[in-house]
Amino acid sequence: MRSFFIIVNPLARHGQAAKIWEQVQNVLDSRNVDYEAHLTDHVGHTQQFIHLKFSKMSPEKAKNYVVLVVGGDGTLNEALNSIKKEAAIEVPLAFIPVGQNNGFAKGIGLSADPLTALEQVLTATEPVYYDIGEYQETTHNEQGYFLNDFGIGLDAYATSLNANAHKHVRLKKFLLRARLRFLVYLINIFTAFLNQEAFAVTLRIGDKYEFFKHARIVNVANHPYFENGIVLSPAADVNDHQLDLIIADNLGFFKFLLLSIAIYFKKQLKLPYLHHYKDKNIHLIINSLEYGQIDGEEVGSKYYDIFFGSSKYPFWLNIQGVPVAKR
């Protein structure tokens, strides 16, 4: 059994993660699992912990560890990028999903129940590999990795509004308190549509170029699931070693409504104004300031000359270790 280096975000799921961590810790102690745990309290804390633990550790010693994240997609993303930056090897990742969306967990079949997910972690005996997305943005000299998706435009604008929903409008605050986050997201996506202007996109895949003059949504996905369990890219697969790109062009109000209905029934790829591509390497150029989001975390408004690719990463999970009926 490997030793677990555990990162806990106790603030995830509006603070419920702290109580969930107590339950997880009790199971670990009862089974005499070797672990050390660290609780985060701000963005960047995960990287600090991983830097202190792994930056000077030899590859041979690092092979004895698994990084276990108890948190949401944002903490998992930070852990992945920190390991890639700080560790001498690709230390396997494990995950107990206690965030709001948990898109990656849905994408690979990891249980939404924390203790069941823990069982899928503890029954693993070797790493399993899943696809992750990688990007290199040349305008700002930025690079990194994502597990869910990289969005530009409407979905990113809505993500920004969603992240700040608790600061605005009494109705949104009421819906959040009532745990109706999906309705909050619908309000935000509609607000974003009313305020998001169309923008030009240049797409290159291989030697072929395509041009879009009035794009509203640009989303590069590693698996089907978007925010609140919405399936935005139904053809995406974490095991096909490719990324799925969706571009919504010439999206007027009625087309937007039709797209929303089509997404509900997972029929959006049949719409003529929703362009779908699947490839291992994708290059996008956007010469206007547009909102961006990575794994549901807003990254601000910027220009893009960005290259996307797909690679594999080891995860310490045994998805089949728990019957489907119990997940």
Description:
This protein is of the alpha+beta class and 327 residues long. It folds into two domains: 3-132 and 313-326, Rossmann fold (3-Layer(aba) Sandwich); 135-310, Tumour Suppressor Smad4 (Sandwich), CATH 2.60.200. The chain is 31% helix and 34% strand. The longest helix is centred in the N-terminal third of the chain and has 15 residues, at 16-30. The two termini are 23 Å apart. Residues 1-138 form the DAGKc domain. Belongs to the diacylglycerol/lipid kinase family. One of its GO terms (molecular function) is ATP binding.
Summarize the topology.
Elements: E1 3-8, H1 16-30, E2 35-39, H2 45-54, H3 59-62, E3 65-71, H4 73-86, E4 93-97, H5 103-108, H6 114-122, E5 128-137, E6 142-146, E7 149-153, H7 154-163, H8 170-177, H9 181-195, E8 199-205, E9 208-221, E10 243-249, H10 253-264, E11 274-279, E12 281-294, E13 297-315
Parallel strand pairs: 1-2, 1-3, 3-4
Antiparallel strand pairs: 5-6, 5-13, 7-9, 7-12, 8-9, 8-12, 9-10, 10-11, 12-13
Helix pairs in contact: 2-4, 7-9
CATH topology of the largest domain: Tumour Suppressor Smad4
| Structural Rg | 20 Å
- Gross geometry: globular
Round the mean pLDDT to the nearest integer and report it: 91
CATH class of the largest domain: Mainly Beta
Element-by-element helix/strand order: EHEHHEHEHHEEEHHHEEEHEEE
- How large a portion of the residues is in β-strands, by DSSP E? 25-35%
* Low-pLDDT windows of residues: none
Gist of the model:
The protein has helices at residues 16-30, 45-54, 59-62, 73-86, 103-108, 114-122, 154-163, 170-177, 181-195, 253-264, and strands at residues 3-8, 35-39, 65-71, 93-97, 128-137, 142-146, 149-153, 199-205, 208-221, 243-249, 274-279, 281-294, 297-315.
